[in-house]
Amino acid sequence: MTDLRIAQLNMPPGMVDFSAGQPSPSLLPLALLRKAAADRLGGNDAPFLAYGAEQGDGYFRSALAGFLSEHYRIAVEADQLFVAAGASMGLDLLCTLFASAGDTVFVEEPSYFLALRIFNDHHLNIVGLPMDADGLIPEALEEELTRHRPVFLYSVPTFHNPSSVTLAAERRQELVALSREYDFFIIADEVYHLLNYAGVPPPPPMASYIDSNTVISLGSFSKILAPGLRLGWIQAGAPLVKRLSGCGLLDSGGGLNPFTSALVRSTLEMGLQHTQLTTLKTAYTQRKIALCKALKRYLPETVRFSEPDGGFFIWLVFPEDVDTKQMLAEAQRQNVGYLPGVRFSSLGRLKNCARLCFAYFDIPELEEGARRLGEVFKAFMNDDYRMKNDE
Length: 391
Ligand SMILES: Cc1ncc(COP(=O)(O)O)c(C=O)c1O
Fold this sequence. Notes:
Elements lengths: L15 E2 L12 H12 L16 H15 L8 E4 L2 H12 L5 E6 L3 H9 L3 E8 L2 E2 L1 H8 L6 E4 L13 H14 L2 E5 L25 E6 L11 E4 L2 H8 L2 H6 L4 H12 L2 H27 L14 E5 L6 H10 L2 E2 L1 E2 L12 E5 L5 H19 L1 H8 L1
Helix pairs in contact: 1-9, 2-9, 3-4, 5-6, 10-12
């Protein structure tokens, strides 16, 4: 039978699957894009329907540079921006252009699980590095550099996926110094940087270091506007942007997503993106607070987590002997889901962890999901249950 689905995610009614790492349908900005489309499509000129400039629509990049300068609190120039069809596509293109099969990529442990899949597609050798509450540990990186010559270090420095940890400001400088000394690129996936729910801003983005020519920053409208737009950017120094813009893919197909860029340019110029960011931050802050409160109520203290200051995720750490992949069967029976920690490990570890996303559901569903999770954990910790299921 023909698959007529439009969306990737298919959430069964009544299910609270915390694994969905995306905005809820109620937060998708249809009315806002209608306004932007009326603005952009109302004229008689349609250069955005021609093949696009290789680096991406210049007016869109200028508008984006202005938006980022304000929200990153650093000076961002349009020349530093290369338009990509989302951060994932940007990451894939970087692998295509700068890595060969068998090259080594350093990742954080845990790491964004779908970046690991992209590195696998490129047959890269993945090496996991430890993190603590301040992010990736520079001493551990330095030690691994005595054993490997990586082409990339891939990091989610701010409001990490899945752990929500933020890399400390001084560590950012240490990593940049190491990338220069040992000659590797840092790919900083900064898609959550603008989703900050604390009173104080996070440390400056890794994008502040692109003049080193070893730092490449990825950004995306998926987390601040809508993932279906497939629009993101790579921010890098001039030689890197030149290499990206000169690749065969763009020579053949032109710059990426000129039509979408034109619409999103209007959202930037009309202040609509700014408004949407404020709306999202308010909604996600409330959802995060509600879920953390419900988890504290329904889960015992043996299940640890930290309340995140931004991003989408809560990282649960269960007692050592709990295998969250095994527990998922019981969760699904109780109409609740999550992503088991092992999915985020390049080393086959983190079996007692789980990632919950608080962006997809409204508060009553988040609370109900937490309640079900408490029941699941109780049932799973019951020895009879475990014995039966281990057989
Ligand atoms: C760290 C990280 N990078 C990239 C992406 C995907 O971004 P995009 O939709 O722009 O490809 C996600 C989405 O979950 C993410 O969490």
